[in-house]
Amino acid sequence: MGTLDGKTIGELEEIAARYPQKRSGLLPMLHLAQSVEGRITPEAVEKCAEILEISPADVHGVATFYTMYKRHGVGDFHVGVCTNTLCAVMGGDEILARLKDHLGVANDEVAPKRQGDQYTVSLEHVECNAACDYAPVMMVNWEFLDNQTPDSAVRTVEALRAGHPVRSTRGPRLCTWREAERVLAGFPDDLVDDGPAAGPASLAGLEIARERGWTAPGGDGQAPAETTTASKQQAAGTADTQRAESETVEETSGTDEAAAEKPEAK
Amino acid sequence: MVSTSSTGPLTPVLTDNWDVEQSWKLSSYAGRGGYEAVDVALGMAPDDVIAAVKDSGLRGRGGAGFPTGMKWSFIPQDNPNPKYLVVNADESEPGTCKDIPLMMANPHVLVEGVIISSYAIRANKAFIYVRGEVLHVIRRVQAAVAEAYAAGHLGKDIHGTGYDLDVVVHAGAGAYICGEETALLEGLEGRRGQPRLRPPFPAVAGLYASPTVINNVESIASVPAIIKNGADWFSSMGTEKSKGHGIFSLSGHVERPGQYEAPLGITLRELLDLAGGVRAGHELKFWTPGGSSTPLLTPEHLDVPLDFEGVGAAGSMLGTRALQIFDETVCVIRAVLRWTEFYKHESCGKCTPCREGTWWLVQALTRLEHGDGGEADLDQLLDQCDNILGRAFCALGDGATSPISSSVKYFRDEYLAHLSHGGCPFDPARSTAWAQAEVTA
Questions:
Q1: Quick one: which of A40, B39, B143, B326 could link to A192 by a disulfide (CB 3.0–4.6 Å)?
Q2: B139 and B78 share one domain
Q3: At the fourth CATH level, which superfamily is domain A77-184?
Q4: CATH 1.10.10 region(s) of chain A?
């Protein structure tokens, strides 16, 4: 049952060695353990404790303190709906309720894998994820899906279960939860240059400043020459939900317009 | 595109390259003068860098507003232990959403700020503690650090000056409390994120019991422009005691939510004008000036200068300039209850007033939201707040009482209406982003 092979143990030791005192590596080490085993297993707790020369109880105490560590498995795609006040008011409560109903799960559960499903989906409500200007917000494997609606959320989880590619509204095509955990452990993938620099709301003030020639003191008031059409297009569309929906689920968008609007970062 | 320019109500500095293609890349950042401030700083004595930041008037952008240069000067340079810089990138305060887009679009300005700040406090090791729940932001920061190493901006003998600096990007794992600086240090040391008793302050005994500066992302990112353009340039923006530019984050029931970088002292009325106002057909009911831990304000505060002094005088705090806008469709008790549930969930459990108190606050507020109980319950709720405020181990407990006491202050009648109505008189469907625009007669 143990899956902590020599490579993983080597990587756990490598994480610990990044720090002046190796115990500092524990949080990313637990992320790595989750990327390999899909959750925090007793074996991973023992191994981290052994490497760091602390007790398994110490490791377990840490693993149970932080909400991103899971003692039970999550889906290939872990969906988090923000239900902190602002997102809740803007519709997060409705989105969460619809997804619970649609998936037939309670909070922090994995939806059953149906015949024909490629991947599993799990659901939990999350606290403020620092994207309030895109409310209501849904996270999938800790990537942003901005300006969601109950319908867009259902379409997204169905696309994920079916194995269709889904793109973050401000990031790359979604990877699996285990792949995401590996990046959090400090082992980057090759997706950094996907997605835009900023979403439309992030650029709201800058656009007004550009239009009106406002700058900080000493500025030349010129928009940078290298401003891209992609970012302009992207900024031009306000964060309307129709667009968020069509962009989010590539496979189900079905319109050329949506494809044309999609910002290409490359 | 206009050809004339002027210093206007908005002053893009940190946000100025967010519309540039691949702005997160070193080539893009360097092409716009990036990393030139490192040369300026490394040509100065470290104490002169500290003096420049002091003179600029930069105050911490993470909420507390402590003067950044003064914080740096508290590092005891005769302490034989290594010095550390830790960047607090654990942005989690409800409503706060400025550091995440900053690191997504412009991670190199943070890395450049880390180099200059570390040099000033004579640190050779720095950590960027990013909350774990923002995968793509972590990718961007990891890549920026890697690019900076490859270009010789980090590592040994930076720019041939003999100065060495290593930077580690550290992903958190989900804990609001780790935004509290000593809890963050616990997390960074591989422990449960529970705050430490102060004193000793981190400047004396921080990470690994060594002298440590902990600064917010936006504070550190503001440093390169101060060094490059001068302290006077920075202090020419803002108000008498709140200098410089800051990112204001508008969210909620506003026509154009988003990030607006402006001098401190701008008002919500001015920001709402730029953002197209409260959503069509509705009016402002209440707002937070700086996240959920800052007492609520109302339309009567639209002209309060959004600087540390102005918001303080209005009975709240500038905090993180997280302006959450709620219109008249929102039940203030529902809003406050949800925040209170958040504080209960995020209480680290270390001290009794917060651990037990936030649990009881949820019970009391839930009863009131359901219209149960009487006016005496409202008084008891305020009494509970009194027993937490100032008695909790850290600011989380204090912050938990802010939305409650301020909402009772401004909306006591609405609490009473729940009691007389036998429940919440509001329809939550009307506040959603997809609710039909209504015309109020």
A1: B143
A2: yes
A3: Glutaredoxin (3.40.30.10)
A4: 6-63
With a threshold of 0.85, tell me whether the complex ipTM lies above it: yes
Q: Do B189 and A143 touch (CB under 8 A)?
A: no
Q: Which residue of A has its CA nearest to B349?
A: A65
Bridge partners of residue B249, in order along the sequence: B259, B322
For β-strands A121-126 and A109-110, DSSP reports them as antiparallel
Chain B residues whose beta carbon lies within 8 Å of the beta carbon of residue A20 = 82, 125, 208
* Per-residue pLDDT tens digits of chain A, which is 266 residues long: 466 999 999 999 999 999 999 999 999 999 999 999 999 999 999 999 999 999 999 999 999 999 999 999 999 999 999 999 999 999 999 999 999 999 999 999 999 999 999 999 999 999 999 999 999 999 999 999 999 999 999 999 999 999 999 999 999 999 999 999 999 999 999 999 999 999 999 999 999 999 999 999 986 544 454 444 444 444 443 334 444 444 455 543 333 333 333 333 33
Backbone phi, psi, residue B405, to 5°: -65, -35
In chain B, the number of structural domains is 3
Torsion of CA B181, A62, B399, B306, to 10 degrees: 40
The alpha carbon torsion through B257, B262, B265, B270 (nearest 10 deg) reads -50
| CATH code (residue B250) | 3.10.20.600
Using a CB-CB distance cutoff of 8 angstroms, which residues of chain B are in contact with residue A170?
104, 136
Whether A126 contacts A81, CB under 8 Å: yes
Cis status, amide bond into B200, omega within 30 of 0 = yes
Residues of chain A in contact with residue B335, where contact means CB-CB under 8 angstroms, are: 85, 89
If asked whether residues B74 and B191 sit together in one domain, one would say yes
Together in a domain, B264 and B370: no
**Residues B147 and B268 grouped into a single domain:** no
Q: Residue B236 is encoded by which pair of tokens?
A: 């020419």
How many angstroms away from the CA of B125 is the closest CA of chain A?
9
Min CA distance, A1 vs chain B (Å)?
25
Q: Which of A147, A183, A213 sits opposite B139 (nearest CB)?
A: A183
Report in angstroms the alpha-carbon separations of A172 from A145, B174, B274, B346: 11, 22, 31, 30
pTM exceeds 0.90: yes
Domain enclosing residue B352, as ranges: 332-428
- What amino acid is encoded at B186 in this protein? E
CB pairs under 8 A between A and B: 341
Task: Identify which of A67, A83, A202 has the shortest CB distance to residue B101.
Answer: A202
Does residue B64 sit in the same domain as residue B209? yes
- How far, in whole angstroms, is CA B172 from its chain's centroid? 17
CATH number at residue B75: 3.40.50.11540
CATH of the domain at B409: 1.20.1440.230
Range A6-63 has CATH code 1.10.10? yes
